[in-house]
Amino acid sequence: VALIDLSRRGFLQKLGIVIGGAGVAGAAAACGSGESANDKLGSYKQEQDARLAAPATSAPAASAGMNHGGAVMQAQPGGHSVADMDRAHEAGVTYYLANAKEMTSRLLPFELDGDTKVFRVTARAMQWETRPGDVKQAYTYNGVLPGPEVRVTEGERVRFIVTNELPESTAVHWHGLYTPNKMDGVPYVTQPPIKPGESFTYEFVAKPSGTHMYHSHHNAMEQVGKGLLGAFIVQPKDKTKYPAFDKEYTLVLNDTLLSFTLNGKSFPATGILKAKLGQRVLVRYINEGLMNHPMHLHGMPMQIVAKDGYPLASPYLCDTQDIAPGDRYDALIECTEPGAWAFHCHTLSHAESPDGMFGLVTALLVE
Ligand SMILES: [Cu+2]
Questions:
Q1: Which residues pair with 304 in a beta bridge?
Q2: 49 — pLDDT class (breaks 50, 70, 90)
Q3: Residues facing 159 on adjacent strands
Q4: I need a surface site. Which of 151, 166, 244, 344 has the fewest CB within 10 A?
Q5: CA–CA gap between residue 15 and residue 281 (Å, rounded)
Q6: What are phi and psi of 113, to 5 degrees?
Q7: Is the CB of residue 353 less than 8 Å from the CB of residue 361?
Q8: Residue 232, class by beta-carbon neighbours within 10 Å (0-12 exposed, 13-18 middle, 19+ buried)?
Q9: How far away, in angstroms, is 293 Cα from ligand 1 center?
Q10: 138 CA to middle of ligand 1, Å?
């Protein structure tokens, strides 16, 4: 397989975009240097609105005139002219490369009560912007989506005081963790639902190690779909039992009610993964959605080292890892190839359209 032009500029050119100057600074300049983040956001939104409002430049039937040579290609299916479609793709990618911030995990803070780590989690309804101008009615833990990441070490005692400020009952399930039965978080199976205005306290010892999650287990299609979800990472007590890595990212996937989101955001508002040449990056995939998402990284293989937190006896290499609802996969990436590499769900209806890329799309930038 030929790996062509590995630079960021190559990435843009591959996507049909030629800009002045290479790198993030160049992309930012092309986008209008001196603009505030809000201006940029506004101009991206205006372009989107203008395209949606503009009448199709050719009737959809004109797509019958398309040929493989491209010379007579006047319109794309859906009534987009060639120029309109390319402009839409360019706007999204240019916006992304100029604005994407490195993905980070917000950690859930705790207080100590003796040896017990005490966490406070409040569920509430609020509005959440998935990408510029796209604001949805969401449910959040502590006002963010995904909920703040829990990070503890195997064997630590944890307590979660969960307060429900939603207009409906809820409960929290600790997916992947070995809890006492009454702490499992399923209404009418192990506890009464937490009614609006009420609190419930969960307490258990964090085990086993691995990539886990916490989420609603009440009216869950809606509540998790609207955002009641978060990562729960239990670090191994003995780190030598897990492959070494230089840096890590948690990628929480979701779909349906808030559209296709990576850590609560849809492309081009998604964050970016960054590594220095030669670094080993660990990606923790967590699928909180209703659909499978085959995540595909360009340029370098992924080595899958754990499933649902359990280290694999035989890690395997792949470039696409299907992730079913509820699954977690830990993937190690040896960042041997410099450039900005597309990284996206390969169910293409979750990632690309005539209006440009959207949804489950990010990039790995190796510098
Ligand atoms: Cu997908």
A1: 316, 331
A2: low
A3: 118, 203
A4: 244
A5: 25
A6: -120, 95
A7: no
A8: buried
A9: 4
A10: 20
For the ranges 55-64, 222-231, 354-363, the lowest mean pLDDT is seen at: 55-64
User: 100 C-alpha to center of ligand 1: Å?
Assistant: 20
Decide: residue 290, CB within 10 A, 0-12 exposed, 13-18 middle, 19+ buried.
middle
**Token reading at 361:** 């799309």
> Residue 246's CB: how many other CB atoms inside 10 A?
12
pLDDT in tens, 27-44: 333 333 333 444 444 555
Q: CA-CA distance, 341 to 361, in Å (whole number)? A: 11
Report DSSP state, residue 264: T
Beta bridge partners of 361: 344
Instruction: Report how far residue 297's alpha carbon sits from residue 317's, in angstroms, rounded to the nearest whole number.
Output: 12
Q: pLDDT digits over 320-354, tens only?
A: 999 999 999 999 999 999 999 999 999 999 999 99
Could you tell me the distance, in angstroms and rounded to a whole number, from the CA of residue 229 to the centre of ligand 1? Answer: 18
Angle at 303 between CA 326 and CA 97, to 5 degrees: 80
Angle (nearest 5°) at CA 260 between 187 and 50: 135
User: Could you tell me the distance, in angstroms and rounded to a whole number, from the CA of residue 318 to the centre of ligand 1?
Assistant: 17
> How far is the centre of ligand 1, averaged over its atoms, from the C-alpha of 269 (Å)?
17
Distance 291 CA to ligand 1 centre (A): 7
197 or 7: which carries more pLDDT confidence?
197
| Alpha helices by DSSP H, 23-77 | 23-30, 37-53
